Amino acid sequence: MSSVSIFSGMDEIQVKLMEEECILVDKDDNKIGHASKKTCHLLENINKGMLHRAFSVFLFNTKGELLLQQRASEKITFPDHFTNTCCSHPLNFPHELDETDAIGVKRAAQRKLKHELGVEPEQVPLEDFHYLTRILYKAENIPKDNTWGEHEIDYILFIQRDVDVVVNPNEVKSYRYVTQQELKDLIDTADSNGILVTPWFKLIVENFLYPWWNKLDHIETQADRDTIHRMV
Fold first, then answer.
1. Boundaries of each Nudix hydrolase domain copy (predicted)?
2. Given 87, 96, 116, 150, which residue is catalytic?
3. pLDDT for position 4
4. Where are the domains of the chain?
5. Gap between the terminal Cα atoms of the chain
6. Whether pLDDT at 1 is above 70
7. Residue 165: which of 115, 118, 113, 111 has the closest Cα?
8. Which candidate in 96, 116, 140, 152 is catalytic?
9. Second-level CATH architecture of 3-230
10. Residue 87 designated active-site
11. Who contacts 117 (Cβ-Cβ below 8 Å, separation ≥6)?
12. How do beta strands 149-160 and 52-60 pair?
């Protein structure tokens, strides 16, 4: 299938972003190469085992509420889905390839918080990000299109800061802060209310999130950086 037909009718800005170079990894998160975002997210490549590095940021305010975003309708994968604060990829250049204390991933998180939510870098200092663990997951795009999907080793990053949000409407449709109970209600009633939730966010919520949330004051005690939780 040609790029023209794959991207027919899609948002030009989002199509352009598909040229970004993601980091290819093996199942143990060792870098083995790089490929465009488009190449990484094509189901035909995912089904052959192509795997790339990603991150998921969970940003909490000082009241302990979690910032959620709803992905923009323009997004090529998982449009209109509610998800954690920010989800994206470190890119294949030295600044974000640096694996020392996951600093490359943290730099990517800082970059994308600015791009998607307008959060200034000084409001989310690199030293305030807590890298907790990694998950490996696979998911087909929703709505299913037999073209796109996700297959990622996803670094989970926590940060607690009060920030100023100025959304990029091409990335984010809406946002809200939620308490634990409000998130539970949202997830429990999502299907009946026609609310879409990203599959990686569901996995993290169902398997990890609430115990971590209860330990925000000493979140480093929850870190498990040697493990890749294989959720496929």
1. 50-203
2. 87
3. 58
4. 3-230
5. 27
6. no
7. 118
8. 152
9. Alpha-Beta Complex (3.90)
10. yes
11. 67, 69, 85, 86, 163, 165, 166, 167, 168, 171, 172, 175
12. parallel
